[in-house]
Amino acid sequence: MTTTANTETAAPTQAVHWDLHYDIHLGETWSQFMEGLRQKKILATGCSSCVRVFVPPQAYCESCFEPTDGWRELPHEGTLEVFTVAWHGFTGGPQAPYAIGAIRLDGASTLLMHWVVGVDFTPGADVREQLPFGTRVRAVWAEERTGQILDIAHFEPVG
Ligand SMILES: [Zn+2]
Predict the structure, then answer these.
(1) Structural domain total, the chain
(2) pLDDT tens, 90-111?
(3) Where is the ChsH2 rubredoxin-like zinc ribbon domain (predicted)?
């Protein structure tokens, strides 16, 4: 990290640049999830005590505090529960504007966050009208998959 002080303005600012490269240990559960994505499979874990289904998968149920006990493959479609629009992009992300959605895949108890495309963001277009509560969305797979979350390139409205 490098910093540069700017004291010439009335309200001082400080430019900050972080350039971080690091490896994340995925662990057994997330490794299996990522391998599933590489194979165009959305894998979830389940809890037999409370019948919750987790995607992204969890090794333990957050309600029962019991280990999850089984893998299942979920459909590639779900319901867009909520979204927000990013009007400014960032390095490594899609070109803005785009929507970030919380998607409940069919059969899942939890929400999966991902990009939602196929939305008209031109001035005058009403994004809320295009993505009303309960909009059905489906996963669009990346052509080249490497076992990471962007193996699902994004979600798009169905129909
Ligand atoms: Zn449970």
Answers:
(1) 1
(2) 877 778 898 999 999 999 999 9
(3) 35-66
